[in-house]
Amino acid sequence: MERSDKPPLQHSDERISGYLHLMNEALAGRFDDLQCPTCRQQAVSVWFTHPTVDRYFTWFICADCRFHTWAEHAEKPPFFSEDRVSTELQEQDLAMLKRSRFKMPPQRKM
User: Fold this and answer.
1) Is 19 exposed, middle or buried (0-12, 13-18, 19+ CB in 10 A)?
2) Residue 2's CB: how many other CB atoms inside 10 A?
3) Which tens digits make up the pLDDT trace of 53-83?
4) DSSP summary character for residue 3
5) What is the pTM of this model?
6) What is the pLDDT of residues 3-40, one digit of tens each?
7) HEC profile for 41-57?
């Protein structure tokens, strides 16, 4: 989910490429000073939430513009770091999950 101050329209492939670049940076363990796909500044930081036992989110937030987006993971991502958990974002994610109309069933252990 992207929200910004009405950035110039971008081709969807370019936008997706920017998001994938951010995810690849996180996979490589780089969590700060990433290039923002909207304002192009090195101002994006990576944050995590773990609002329930089986739900993980990765947040990408720009300090220079209003860009922010998130990804939900099917399992704990390999780059997850407890040191980077944002309490504020985690509370927001938990509230969103509680409000959701369609609930995911709990994962079964195999």
Assistant:
1) middle
2) 15
3) 888 999 999 999 999 999 998 889 989 999 9
4) -
5) 0.75
6) 555 555 456 788 889 999 999 999 999 999 999 999 99
7) CEEEEEEEEEEECCEEE
Given a contact cutoff of 8 angstroms between Cβ atoms, the answer to whether 61 and 47 are in contact is yes
User: How many CA atoms lie within 13 Å of 38's alpha carbon, on the beta-carbon side?
Assistant: 18
d(Cα 105, Cα 96) in Å, to the nearest integer? 16
Higher pLDDT pick, 43 / 103 = 43
Q: Which residues have CB under 8 Å from 106's CB, separation 6+?
A: 53, 54
DSSP letter (8 states) at residue 110: -
